[in-house]
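Supplementary Text 2. Reproducibility record for the structural model of the 250-residue chain.

All settings were left at their defaults, and a single model was retained for analysis rather than an ensemble. We include the record here because the model underlies the residue-level annotations in Supplementary Table 4.
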Amino acid sequence: MKRLGLLGSMTVAMVIQASVIPASGAGAAKAPVIGGLNDASGGMESLADPGIAGLASAITTQFPGVKFHLVGHFTEANLSKVNVLFLGVAKSPNSGIKPLSKAEGTAILNFVKGGGTAVLFTDNSTFTANAPAINRSFLRPFGLAATGTLGAGQAITMATGTNPVASGPAGTINQLESYYPGWFSKLGASTLLGTLPANNEPGLAYLPAGSLGAGSGAVIFFADSSLLLDGTRTSDDTTGILNALAVGLP
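Retained model, structure tokens:
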């Protein structure tokens, strides 16, 4: 079993009621908007799920007025309503979300090319039978690949130099604390932001704004989605995630 799956202590309904934009809402909101999967499709890594209620609260505290736009699948139309796409691969401790379809992958790629930011969490290759297919559906549009499984707790050490996850408006960190992570076997045009000392492989990567053409947005890639869960996430993990979101939030 990969994850602890512990629930946050706060009442997630209060956060969601205050923050979610209904999928049927007309037009883009003036407030900054984070997009993702709803609880039915995204499970325990959806911003609507009690298992990350603490993270949802931290986000709304760090970014006052931010809204969540959570949907069952991704289209260019619903992605046009958001500033940042926030997405993890796991639906339960031992199952994943449905792999993104080719159409969804194209919509997400076009969203980034159009100036949107994506914060994506892949995971190890064995947490569920189709983990490689789910990881691939997240990464292939951007030229990355993931593989492997490391045991239990693993540090991801931050690279020096310009690093928007290590240093940002939420604070400064030296490492993330992952839990049964995978790693990136191919980085494509992205930049290394963090390394797993256990095998010296990339655990955090960054495609800066402008990499996919003039006006394109950024993508931040985490090689472990357990970082999202209230039961395993450390304070440094929270800081890193908030810094990643800040890359695309006004």
